[in-house]
Amino acid sequence: MRPKRLLDYTVPSIGRMTPLxxxxxxxxxxxxxxxxxxxxLQKFSGSLxxxxxxxxxxxxxxxxxxxxxxVVHRAADVDALTLIAMLRRVNPFVPIILVSGRESCPxxxxxxxxxxxxYDSWLRIGTVIEDMIAAEQAATEPSRFxxxxxxxxxxxxxxxxxx
Length: 163
Prior knowledge:
Layout: E1 22-27, H1 30-43, E2 48-52, H2 55-64, E3 69-74, H3 80-90, E4 96-100, H4 106-111, E5 115-118, H5 125-140
Parallel strand pairs: 1-2, 1-3, 3-4, 4-5
Helix pairs in contact: 2-3
């Protein structure tokens, strides 16, 4: 009998083999990582969470792991926008959310972030990720699009960009 792999475990509420949500939180301040991680675990109970404070482990995790999303505040060795661009180069598909104390950060989307969330709204991080996942699923599953009634064309939902 072979040992169980991580993805062989079941999610109790679903009862079938389903990959667990897996998140990476990057912040150079442990208390900030804790707040974001705790909030994610409340929204996605049973999920897997990785935390780091520097860019190298973040890049390795983003390149090697199948992450549900990456949450970036800042790293100890590079600024957030540089880190987002680096993460996007190693994984062009993973959703990346920039959390910042600024009111807005137009450079985040340009650097490759999928969404921006003001840090004062950190309690919303789970909802932002949930909405992003739903929008991505709707965009990749045409059968879920509501029909517009105009010649049978489906209405496309624009990509999720801002929280």
